[in-house]
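note to self: dont lose this again. the chain is below, predicted strucutre after it. 420 aa total, dont forget to put it in the shared folder this time
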Amino acid sequence: MERQLSGDTTFVRAPQWSVIDSLEVTSPTAITVKLKAPIAAAHHLFADVASFIVAPELAPDGRDITLDHQVGSGPFLWVEWSDQRFASVRRNPAWFGGDRRPYLDGISLVQPRTTAEVESGLRTRALDVAVVNRTLADHLKRALPQLVEYTVGHSMFFSVRYSLVNHPYNDHRFRNAITWALDRREMVRKFFDGSGGLSPWVSWPVSRWTLPESELTVVPGYRPGDGGREADLREARAALDAFRSEKTLPADPLPLFVVDATESAIGLGSVIRDQLKAALGLDIRVVPMPLSQLVGLLLSAEAPFAAGPDTGWIDLDDWVYPYFHSAGTRNSFPLRDPDLDALIEKQRLELNETARRDLGYEIQRRILALNPGANLVSERVVALAWPYVKGYPLDTTDGYQDRFASCWIDASDPTFRGRA
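---
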């Protein structure tokens, strides 16, 4: 905690800990933490996946956190890792969860190069489980009808952001026009083979906090059906016409800065470009670049229109305070809205979950009204497993590792025969 409070730049969530006033070791097994003010997300703060513990003797300079130095109290221990190829862990016999768990001796996560490798691995049972897209899942289920399907929404999302200090994005009418004109349902079809959903700001799988879908169906940009899409386009074009009645657009195409890996994988920028051309007649130029470079341009207001992925979070405060509060460390828009600040501060103090959820709804309504950016779509993840795999965990975001401890292999299941 002291390392994180000290402002170590390698710890990306250091600003979270600014709410702590003091730390005191009050006994060999207890630490007393005093906060500067009440905060509803305090428990989440300490349990966050980024709040990991590093033994001082393994990182004497506070920064040397490497693969070899990763330690913790989880159900599995690292064996080896090759980035974007595979990762292997083995059972932690000293895990505090106990009760014979974890049941698995180990887990290997592999990244097949082709869909043929996935199918081959499942057929030979070299793979027990595969996480795939909807189209491949349907193909594999036809080929191997014994496979059991698990699905869950994932809070990772694809989004657009605008710079509110750059023309034309500093005009609310222009932001409305392009945000409402984007066809989110077509994105779900293109990116996820239809296996996904639309979100306000908090991704739809995070049902604890996200604005109900029933409310979204009357919001511009979210209306369902052909009639809804036509209404979205009418309002988007009207907003653009209102903007053009007073202001002009640059003669050159508007640059859209996109994370290069995302553009290569799904063509996010190209889809946005084509949709805005078809809907509004706007000319967009897609500019792919590495994420690290794009982040720098966002913070310096040199990427006024940007698109890419983000991971999503668990607690409401993580979704709103860093990004939309005037003092938020990731408020790259930058948005300054006193009414929104007041709502965000109020939810931090609200300990009643129902009341806090209602505040979260009000915050998302305000974000939808201001349109500083938009969470577009999130995927519904599909996992296919052989029936002998029991208790396979899927979750909306990080933090499901402990639930792998309850996953087990039923060797008595008939489909276990022939497993590699």
